[in-house]
């Protein structure tokens, strides 16, 4: 995979900018990196806080020739690629993927991913937005975020060059995306199974506004969270936000 990197000092959101560029015909592999975002977007309408030099904020543009249902598993793939790259950069730190695509280090969130799909038919595009807490001093975050967030510096005990982190992430993503184009998540399943933070843990979530809870039983090859509910049935959940349930600490 060839990446073309464009850097800007400041923008609202690299996801929003890249979506606009995609609508104007930008090619697959375009990567937009911002030193600073003033309106970083998170999942579920949240905002994403970042600090210049301390955070890595970028989005990449993909134009997979797959049906939209399959493209949904790209968001899981992004979590796998990020976790793999961060594990390589921080040997000895326990890195995991929390379905659908948060990346945790020692049980705290170190990276957020926001995938947004657009276009349609043969012109579908997917924007994968990635925010990594690189050198962030988590004590400077609002208390409610600081309680569950971490950074590479906090976990590895040293600072990192954001550019080196970007290179590692793009390399991992490129390789994983190539495999995904051939066979979907299949070749990422062993990594995912071994790094699935919710596996075996009590999970609480909402599905269409109804509470749903159970025990995480893995992730299916098409990206669904497998949740064993009280009656022993295993539900396949394709979208939502999962939290630790039954007295576990929420993340
Ligand atoms: C989340 O965990 O809620 C997802 C956060 C995604 C943040 C990244 S930073 C780069 C890209 N541009 C955005 O506006 N958001 C994503």
Task: Give a quick summary of the entry.
27% of the residues lie in helices and 31% in strands.
Give structural notes:
The C terminus is likely disordered. The chain starts with a strand and ends in a 7-residue tail after the last strand. A hairpin with a 6-residue loop joins β6 and β7. The strands form 2 sheets. The chain has a 7-stranded mixed sheet with strand order 1-2-3-7-6-5-4, sandwiched between helices. A 5-stranded antiparallel sheet has the order 11-10-9-8-12. It is globular. Helices cover 27% and strands 31% of the residues. The chain has 251 residues and is of the alpha+beta class. The chain is built from 7 helices and 12 strands. The structure holds biotin (BTN). The site of biotin (BTN) has 20 residues, from α1, β3, β6 and β7. Biotin binds next to α1, β3, β6 and β7.
Strand line-up of the largest beta sheet: 1-2-3-7-6-5-4
Through-space gap between termini: 34 Å
Main structural class: alpha+beta
Shape: globular
Radius of gyration: 17 Å
Hetero groups in this structure are: biotin
List the uncertain runs. 247-251
Helix percent reads: 25-40%
Q: Report the mean per-residue pLDDT as an integer.
A: 93
């Amino acid at each position: 995979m060839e990446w073309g990197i464009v850097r800007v000092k400041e923008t609202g959101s690299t996801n929003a900018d890249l979506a606009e560029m995609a609508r104007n015909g930008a090619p697959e592999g375009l990567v937009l990196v911002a030193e600073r975002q003033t309106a970083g977007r998170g999942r579920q309408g949240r905002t994403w806080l970042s600090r210049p030099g301390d955070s890595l904020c970028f989005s990449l543009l993909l134009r997979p020739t797959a049906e939209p249902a399959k493209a949904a598993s790209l968001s899981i793939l992004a979590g796998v690629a990020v976790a793999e790259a961060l594990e390589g950069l921080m040997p000895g730190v326990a890195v995991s993927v929390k379905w659908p695509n948060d990346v945790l280090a020692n049980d705290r969130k170190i990276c957020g991913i926001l995938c947004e799909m657009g276009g349609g038919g043969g012109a579908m595009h997917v924007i994968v937005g990635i925010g990594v807490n690189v050198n962030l001093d988590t004590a400077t975050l609002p208390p409610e975020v600081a309680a569950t967030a971490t950074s590479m510096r906090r976990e590895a005990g040293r600072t990192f060059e954001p550019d080196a982190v970007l290179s590692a992430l793009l390399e991992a993503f490129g390789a994983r995306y190539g495999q995904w184009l051939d066979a979907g998540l299949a070749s990422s399943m062993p990594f995912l199974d071994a790094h699935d933070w919710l596996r075996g843990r009590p999970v609480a979530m909402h599905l269409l506004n109804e509470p749903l809870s159970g025990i995480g039983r893995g992730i299916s090859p098409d990206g669904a969270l497998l949740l064993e509910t009280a009656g022993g049935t295993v539900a396949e959940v394709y979208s939502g936000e999962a939290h630790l349930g039954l007295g576990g600490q929420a993340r």
